[in-house]
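Dear Dr. H.,

I hope your travels went smoothly. While you were away I took the liberty of generating a structure for the chain from your last submission, since the lab meeting agenda had it listed for discussion. I wanted you to have the full record in hand beforehand rather than looking at slides cold. The sequence, exactly as received, is reproduced here:
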Amino acid sequence: MKAVKWILGFLAVMLFAVGIFAYVTVSKGAEKAARKYSMDYDDAMILHEEEAIEAGRYLAETHGCTDCHGGNLAGQVMADAPPFLLVASNLTRGEGGVGSEFSDADWLRAIRHGVGMDGRGLFIMPSKAYYYFSDEEVGALIGYLQQVEPVDNVLPPVKVRTLGKLIMGMGDDFKAAPEMIPDNARPVMPEKGPTAQWGEYRATILCTACHGYDLAGAQAPDPDSPFTPNLRVVGGWGLDGFVRAMREGTTPAGQQLDTEYMPWEDFGRMTDTDLEGIFRYLDS
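The corresponding predicted structure, in token form, is as follows:
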């Protein structure tokens, strides 16, 4: 009987300890989810000329905007799971869209820092990569987004559920926003061409969000995504093999790229110059 009482007492203590740990961790996660970030700045000129609008459309279609926010940029529910209800916002000026509410500075904070109009972090927004858009390109991208066709699409707000708060509370590196410093130096955009220098600029914005800053593989922003591969493997594909993989979704080894986590259909819309530049950089 004494042994049974001792075991029951031990289990009770353990359950109490687990309960305290869960409460503290969930509270920590809730605090992270509700954290606000103050960034009052506007350091890029928004471009509305026809040529700039076309350049912005190109960036939106090839750099992941339409992949998450939909082909018409009206947003969508990306995941509805026990940890999170993840929603990509309606970017248009239609009902439920942020386009009619965002100032130029709001667009910049959202794109470069992953911070919404209310100051809270935007989940799965790859701002650590988008931060390195040049002023010219981010200005063209915002100019395009400001004039896209309005679409009425009222979406539910993002929800961080109890399990999600627990996950956030346990991970010290889990942030709802990148917390980038506004005056961090951005590299000067090099001359456009099929070169490794141009490819490095393009890959820094396009590839590092999922594959890590050294492109050696990482956990993508989407928590459901598998660990991404090391892109050094691309050097063995050859230029033709790389371009074919981006445009047809099949590697030289015959592996089919997963469209759910690798938006090769978007990347395949890139120009020959951009694709060759990226390959030259990865091959280096």
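Two observations you may find useful: The beta strands are 76-80, 84-88, 159-160. Residues 1-185 form one domain.

With kind regards,
E. W.
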